[in-house]
Amino acid sequence: DTAVSQTPKYLVTQMGNDKSIKCEQNLGHDTMYWYKQDSKKFLKIMFSYNNKELIINETVPNRFSPKSPDKAHLNLHINSLELGDSAVYFCASSHHRVPSYEQYFGPGTRLTVT
Amino acid sequence: QKEVEQNSGPLSVPEGAIASLNCTYSDRGSQSFFWYRQYSGKSPELIMSIYSNGDKEDGRFTAQLNKASQYVSLLIRDSQPSDSATYLCAVNINDMRFGAGTRLTVKP
CA B72, CA B3: separation in Å to the nearest integer? Predict the structure, then answer.
């Protein structure tokens, strides 16, 4: 029944490693997002995909690469992890229609880089 | 100027009181406005959306929108300890922009 799911829930890794986070939604939405929530709890959009196409790419280091194999999945791959990448990463999804962009969030992945 | 501004709080109210949360936004072209609730260690949960000027009520929650003043608020009536959380205001401009959140504590 889970609407938006993410794996893993926790990720602890060392600087310089490469890691991936996976996201899946079963809401039938056509748009998916990645957000980063830092230690100050500020939630900031990183990427947005509509029908597998990138529509938003905020100022994010190119070490972060999203991939959407289909409308229901959006993965985030991070290369050469840095200490500053430690945060909670949330996946979200919505229908892409005006005026409603109600977004529904996954449970989050807490990434800790040591 | 930040795109979406909220008073970070903390806001403390006694059980049964009305909690009032406020948010201002900078882009007059914004069309969609949302309130999310986030419990500590959990993900944001959508509790209200509003698109037109005026009030929108859902149970104990009332969202108020004033586009002329670029202001959106959330009222929580009969506040309960379970309402203690961080409330995030979100505004859809070209994409969703979140405020920094207001931490609400409801004391029994």
Answer: 13
- For residue A44, list chain B residues with Cβ-Cβ distance below 8 A: 98
Residue A6: what residue type?
Answer: Q
Residue A1 confidence (pLDDT)? 65
Nearest Cα residue in chain A from B47 = A102
Q: Check if the beta carbon of residue A32 is closer than 8 Å to that of residue A68.
A: yes
State which residues of chain B have pLDDT below 50. none
Q: Look at A56 and B95 and tell me if their CB atoms are within 8 Å.
A: yes
